[in-house]
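LAB NOTEBOOK - FOLDING QUEUE
OPERATOR: T.R.
BATCH SIZE: 2
PURPOSE: Compare the predicted structure-token outputs for two unrelated chains run back to back under identical settings.
PRIORITY: normal
REVIEWER: second-year student, initials M.K.

ITEM 1
FIELD SEQUENCE / FIELD STRUCTURE:
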Amino acid sequence: MTKERRKRTRVPVSFELNILLRGEKIKVQTNNISMTGVNFISPQTFKAGEKCTIDLSLNKEVHLSIEAKILRSKNNETIASFLVMDEETFYHLKRLLQFNAVDSDQIDKELGEPAFT
């Protein structure tokens, strides 16, 4: 049995977002999201290591844009790791996770710990 290495809560959410890659906009459906990445379903497979932009509109006023890297992609399921986001995006992502998490306080606790060791 392998030890769980993830340090961030994954929140199961299902919404559409766009992946911007090689000048193309690809609509995908999320499975779950954390402060460090997203798992999504897509009609196509992506190449590990490719850099992309995660584009998510929460409403007419709030738009998140996150630079990311594809970690793995198989059978239409893809994992992308977040690389860069601005402060406002960080705030809205954190609030999105807290709103949908079973234990919203856990999100704040995790942010006090290193994500990677």
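ITEM 2
FIELD SEQUENCE / FIELD STRUCTURE:
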Amino acid sequence: MIEQFGRAGFLLLFAVAFPLLPIVASVVLGVFKIRPRKPDPVKESIYECGMVPIGNAQVRYNVRYYVFGLLFVIFDVEAVFLYPWAVTYRQLGLYAFVEVVLFLGILFVGYAYAWRKGAMEWK
């Protein structure tokens, strides 16, 4: 049993160290002034596929894009959870059916709440 947790611990250590090593290396190189830092107006300008930039790069997006995106992700994940259930439904029996009905009921309550709050309307 300890071997399984040891493997998981090793993977956890790797998952934490892998993104942190480049960040720490960049900070260390910046502290010792090894990292190049030559500001230039051309380097700091916005790049728009070779075109001359027009306007500011910091455009305010409507929050409804994010709400629609989050709702899509939620219901996409729901579909991912339903595939294994559909494959093994005959082996699992009535208990699995009750679990899925409960799962879909909770999702339906969330969907009805979002609909009621007007998250689905594009004004």
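REVIEWER COMMENT (ITEM 2): The mean pLDDT is 83.
FOLLOW-UP: none requested
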